[in-house]
Specification:
The chain is α/β, with parallel strands linked by helices. Helices cover 40% and strands 17% of the residues. The strands form two sheets. A seven-stranded mixed β-sheet has the order 3-2-1-4-5-10-11, with helices on both faces. The model has no long low-confidence stretch (mean pLDDT 96). The structure holds adenosine-5'-diphosphate. Adenosine-5'-diphosphate (ADP) binds next to α4.
């Protein structure tokens, strides 16, 4: 269970804004709800910015009331919409965005997103002094400085549900399946999906495998009576990693089927875990921001909510624990 630590009680601001940016993740709505309701209950006005940093530039900013965030805790995606905003890469544009926020009397900004979104927030704060605070929201769980991110648990559960279904057909037809899950630079989704779904082996960017290695694993399974196999593959740099491996496995006499889960992993109602995580992190980020703490994100460290400066997050690599991969392999043998 995640531990909610004591939150600061000082309230220095009267008006703050919140946005979601980068890839959407289930639980972002629960975070928006937490930010809004925590702030309003402490006498602070909250403004919702539409479409990530685009809304800051175009002035797509609307006041949120308690009722604006009603009935969204269970919804996937983000009601504020999200986008990638290339304009925000320009210093001049970030300066204009800060000026617009100040013009509207907004004193701080909560950014719900990933590493890229925090880079934008950190630059905005560094260059203009405008206070920002981050809430880690990404299905990939690839943000340094936090053990967990909003959306990861839901994505893993979605992928495991798919694996369970695929296993039914794989065992009926005595087939090998390659299931491709999301994860470009880190294999967290693949690792947890593979472990939780009982996959025969897991291919992740941190520990790539070639067709021969996979063949040897399948072979060991066949030798002890297995008639079907599920291989979980992280998508890697280019989507289609599983297709490539499938072609290569043909040389070893298999005819594997490929199932790419793709964007199905992004959608859906957030799990209880993600709703609680988002409620904790959204509230904590708001409490810290209102107390004057900024230039960092709220994350989970040693199982508890903690403030982490951007300097320990942005551009830092977070890779999965190699022992989890080893354990998955032991348990699948
Ligand atoms: P994520 O936040 O999920 O990592 P992205 O990397 O796409 O997603 O970043 C989301 C947005 O954050 C970008 O579209 C851009 O507006 C902003 N951003 C990302 N990198 C930078 C950067 N180096 N400078 C300024 N803004 C950035």
């Amino acid at each position: 269970m995640i531990q909610l630590t004591k939150l600061p009680t000082k309230v220095l601001y009267r008006k703050i804004a919140v946005l979601t940016s980068g890839g959407d993740a289930p639980g972002m709505n629960a975070a928006v709800r937490a930010v809004t309701r925590y702030a309003i209950s402490h006498g602070v006005e909250v403004y919702g910015v539409q479409r990530g940093y685009n809304g800051l530039i175009d002035g797509q900013v609307e006041k949120l009331e308690l009722s604006s965030v009603a009935n969204i805790i269970q919804k996937g995606g983000t009601v504020l919409k999200t986008a990638r905003c290339l304009e925000f890469l320009k210093k001049k544009v970030r300066k204009e965005a800060a000026a617009l926020l100040c013009r509207d009397g907004i004193e701080g900004l909560v950014v719900i997103g990933g590493d890229g979104s925090f880079t934008g927030a950190s630059l905005l704060e560094k260059e203009t002094g405008f206070p920002t605070i981050g809430v880690p929201g990404t299905i990939d769980n690839d943000i340094a400085g936090t053990e967990d991110t909003i959306g990861f648990d839901t994505a893993v559960n979605t992928a495991i549900d798919a694996i369970d279904r695929i296993r039914d057909t794989a065992s009926s037809h005595e087939r090998t399946f390659l299931v491709e899950v999301m994860g470009r630079n880190s294999g967290f989704i693949a690792l947890y999906t593979g472990l939780g779904g009982g996959a025969e082996t897991i291919v992740i960017p941190e520990a790539p495998q070639n067709a021969k290695q996979i063949h040897e694993t399948i072979r060991r399974g066949i030798d002890r009576g297995k008639s079907s196999s599920i291989i979980v593959v992280a998508e890697g740099k280019t989507v289609g990693n599983a297709q490539i491996l499938s072609k290569e496995l043909k040389a070893f006499g298999y005819d594997p089927k490929v199932c790419t889960l793709g964007h199905t992993q992004r959608g859906g109602s957030p799990t209880a875990h993600d709703r609680v995580l988002a409620s904790y992190l959204g509230s904590a980020a708001t409490a810290y921001l209102l107390s004057g703490k900024s230039n960092g994100m709220l994350g989970i460290q040693k199982g508890a909510v903690a403030f982490v400066p951007y300097s320990k997050v942005i551009g830092k690599k977070k890779i999965s624990d190699p022992y989890v991969l080893k354990l998955a392999s032991i348990l699948a043998s």
